[in-house]
Automatic annotation (TrEMBL):
Domain Lactate utilization protein B C-terminal residues, every copy: 402-479
Lineage: Bacteria, Bacillati, Actinomycetota, Actinomycetes, Kitasatosporales
GO molecular function list: 4 iron, 4 sulfur cluster binding
Every LUD domain range: 74-300
Annotated organism of origin: Streptomyces viridochromogenes (strain DSM 40736 / JCM 4977 / BCRC 1201 / Tue 494)
Signal peptide: none
Coiled coil: none
The name this protein goes by in its record: Iron-sulfur cluster-binding protein
One Pfam family linked to the record: LutB_C
Transmembrane stretches, start-end: none
Amino acid sequence: MSDATFLGMPAFPAAAASALRDSQLRGNLARATGTIRSRRAAAVAEQDDWEQLREAGRAVKERTLRHLDRYLLQVEEKVTAAGGKVHWARDAEEARRIVVGLVQDTGEREVVKVKSMVTQEIGLNEALADAGIDAYETDLAELIVQLGHDQPSHILVPAIHRNRAEIREIFLRSMGAYGTAAPADLDDDPRRLAEAARRHLREKFLRAKVAVSGVNFLVAETGTAVVVESEGNGRMCLTLPETLISVAGIEKVVPTWQDLEVFLQLLPRSSTGERMNPYTSTWTGTTADDGPRAFHLVLVDAGRTDALADPVGRQALNCIRCSACLNVCPVYERVGGHAYGSVYPGPIGAVLSPQLRGTTSDVDRALPYASSLCGACYEVCPVKINIPEVLLHLRARIAEEGRGRLVPKPERLAMAAARWVLSRPSRLTAAQRAGALAARLVARRGRVGRLPGPLSRWTDTRDAPLPPAQTFSAWWKRTHR
């Protein structure tokens, strides 16, 4: 099993071109992201100290990453003292092996799952299936994705690419094969869809002996794991089973409960536009006569240490998975999450995935270019990750890595021509005049028309205004004699 690519998809340009032809997808995305954006804006506007909170969140994250080794050892010490067991996984393969082994040790053949990005990242469901173990997603959106034999396309709303009518069809077609079937007269009313999901999941909650969860935060001073969610399914998974296996990336640590309080204000406003999370569950090891009898914490590296070593790129590890950057990104809104070829889509995926997986594949080398660099992601990030800065940094790294490979001849010629033109102001002025004239020759409805040859790839994907009749240099000379 390989975790180097996602869905075996092509690089972003090809995947995005296919997604752009899906008008239903674009409509679903536009409606959903627009709604979430407006709710977030309203919730943030209520907070007078929002910018101070953002700065506090950034400072806590950066301080934690500087001393991550110390805080991770503290987590292990506290979890062990509270009756839990900590497992360390260097990569996705080792993490899968640990979790599958822990489930097999219980003798059970099924698990219930709390929504978790890191288990998707390591391909845990597929590994469990290969071992003959059924994994049931209990988050509503993840359930929709699983029943539809699909893949998530959003961090917060994995089924954002589906509308109510499509969800109804998925429930009617597939729910019975996994357990309690959907009512035959089910319509696309959200309340009835939610009720069908509740009835379907209830038998899973009451029967399962093993649960697998992700972790939103790990409080180092007490070894406490934290999960925030909106439906209550997480609470059911964290309390009813006899064995709980929590999988967390090593960057999820926060030093103290006081630090956690900052993120419990930032996360709900940035993700769902709410003042607080409907359900915030915390657990520390095991407790007699309450909750699971056995608790295992699997700490996953899987490229995070490599990212930590990059002074610029490491800020991507500050991410708290709120998805605010996805909801404002003009690129994501038009192509959706699947086009990124990664469990982490959108702007954060474009900077996180290439660092976790490396840039050896075409998919990962293309991701830093899947952005217009408009900066909207940076403006809304609750922990102030400068995503445009990291994108440019990764582009430079990929270009530098490419120096050792044969650069295509057209690109070499184009760069040589650009160097020649930009080396003298007179050449640049002449090129600007020629370019303006050429643009007017192919003008169409006041915009640049289709350019010939390879340049058509640029004009076919954007509406570009005609260049001004007068360049800045010419205006300056005329007005500042």
